[in-house]
Prior knowledge:
Layout: E1 10-11, E2 17-18, E3 21-27, E4 35-42, E5 47-48, E6 51-53, E7 57-70, E8 75-79, E9 83-86, E10 92-96, E11 102-109, E12 117-119, H1 125-134
Antiparallel strand pairs: 1-3, 2-5, 3-4, 4-11, 6-12, 7-8, 7-9, 7-10, 7-11
Amino acid sequence: MEHVPSTSTAKAPAERFTGDVYLNPIQTPTDPARLAAALVRFTPGARTNWHSHTNGQTLYITDGVGLVGTRDGSVVRVSAGETVQCPPGEEHWHGATDSTLMAHIAMVVGDSDGDGTTWLEPVTTDEYAHALTTLGH
């Protein structure tokens, strides 16, 4: 057993996120296990860029209300206690609504090159607004 002390909160990199997002790493991928996990906190309106994961991603919502969207225009509204599973290779984004914060534990199983995430372009203001409208927000 290993007791791991709390990690410091870090501001998420602006080249991968829109708005104010904060990260607390939980687990980094190390051999033989390749789990990467982090607590991610999004302020209202904040969101990830489009991205995908080699082996998929699981998001467990811990607080607030958020959105998860895919390239085909599907959007789900998520709240505390819910889980979203994004399949391998699916381009998606996630973040808070425009009026509430959202926090989740993001979990991925990495590959030999790291966490298996491919970061893409930002979600546009129009794409985000459409997602909010789709859900009647």
